[in-house]
Design goal:
- This protein is mainly α and about 180 residues long.
- The chain contains 9 helices and 3 strands.
- A hairpin with a 4-residue loop joins β1 and β2.
- α2 packs across α6.
- The chain starts with 14 loop residues before the first helix and ends with a helix.
Length: about 180
């Protein structure tokens, strides 16, 4: 099988870059990038999360877009980023009537502008784009040996294997 050539491939955040983001987690944009790196959301999916999409008891988020498999998927919040998600929940409840978790950015364009500025100010690879956090999630999940079908479920990719799609139950605890 010939590998598809990608003209402008997404980059993976290096371990050093992730460490820089963690060291700057007081910045709201750094927090959002880390959330994306640990949950695999597409940037537009991340920005469209509403408070009503979050189960604070189970600490899961329902969201997604683009494909049938991608819509309305339940994604557990990793324990490492739980404080970051809780920060945005608290902040949104106190400061916004929009009902959006990431109400700070009214559009992808406003997010992108601030994103590029943060990347430069932190000295990260200037070729990074917001979608790179999704690639980082998938790459890191594979390196850690996460089940291939769990990854597909979490990022909203179609599972064509009938045993996995129809006969394998993936509850939140298993996915977590």
């Amino acid at each position: 099988i010939k590998k598809e050539e990608v003209e402008n491939p997404h980059l993976t955040y290096s371990e050093e870059e992730l460490e820089i983001l963690w060291n700057n987690k007081d910045d709201e944009l750094a927090k959002s990038i880390l959330i994306e790196c640990y949950m695999g959301w597409r940037p537009n999916e991340l920005l469209s999360i509403k408070l009503s999409d979050i189960d604070e008891l189970e600490m899961t988020i329902i969201g997604g877009s683009k494909t049938h498999a991608g819509k309305d998927r339940v994604v557990p919040v990793a324990s490492k980023i739980r404080p970051l998600v809780e920060y945005f929940i608290k902040n949104s409840k106190e400061s916004s009537s929009s009902g959006k978790l990431f109400y700070h950015w009214s559009s992808y364009f406003s997010y992108y502008k601030k994103y590029k500025s943060l990347i430069v100010s932190l000295g990260l690879n200037e070729n990074h784009r917001p979608h790179d956090a999704r690639k980082t999630f998938i790459t890191r999940a594979k390196k850690k040996g996460l089940d291939e079908f769990a990854i597909k479920h979490l990022v909203g990719h179609t599972i064509s294997d009938i045993t996995e799609r129809v006969y394998t139950e993936r509850d939140v605890d298993w996915l977590r």
